[in-house]
Amino acid sequence: MSKAEEMLALHLRAEGIPAEREYRFGAEAAGGPGKGLRDRLVRAGLKDWRFDFAIPDQMLAIEVEGGGWTQGRHTRGAGFQADLEKYDAAMRLGWTVY
After folding, report:
1. pLDDT of residue 80
2. CA–CA distance, 93 with 25 (Å, rounded to integer)
3. What band does 79 get if pLDDT is binned at 50, 70 and 90?
4. Sign of the dihedral defined by the CA atoms of residues 73, 77, 82, 87, in that order
5. What does the alpha-carbon distance between residue 8 and residue 20 come to, in Å, rounded to a whole number?
6. If you average pLDDT over residues 74-93, what whole number do you get?
7. Fewer C-beta within 10 Å: the chain N or C terminus?
8. Pick from 2, 19, 6, 15: which is nearest to 62 by CA?
9. What pLDDT, on a 0 to 100 scale, did the predictor assign at position 73?
């Protein structure tokens, strides 16, 4: 977990906000984790994506991207594109992504 994620987790707990870490929204949308998940994900056109934080009953996701100039995975071309695909799939499933 990054420092930013640690701080966000601390603040969410302090405020009593029931956010789940590493919520597997792709798996949940494909019928839940377990036997046959890979095939179910393929049939649904999804991947085993995770949100940094999620409040599933409100379909609210929080993603922590990191610094724009750090050359981390989220700011390079392929990583940024993969994140956008994940966010697009999430929003099509009814999630709000911050």
Report:
1. 82
2. 9
3. confident
4. positive
5. 12
6. 87
7. C
8. 19
9. 63
Residue whose pair of structure tokens reads 């990583």 in the numeric block: 79
Paired sense of beta strands 96-97 and 51-55, if any: unpaired
**Amino acid, res. 86:** K
Rg (CA), the chain: 14
| DSSP alpha helix (H) spans, the chain | 3-14, 25-29, 37-44, 77-92
Contact between 8 and 38 under an 8 Å Cβ cutoff? The reply is no
Determine the Cα–Cα distance for residues 66 and 4; give it in Å rounded to an integer: 8
Asked if residue 17 lies in contact with residue 8, where contact means CB atoms within 8 angstroms, the answer is: no
Tokens found for residue 17: 């906000």
Give the integer Cα–Cα distance in Å for 23 and 39: 20
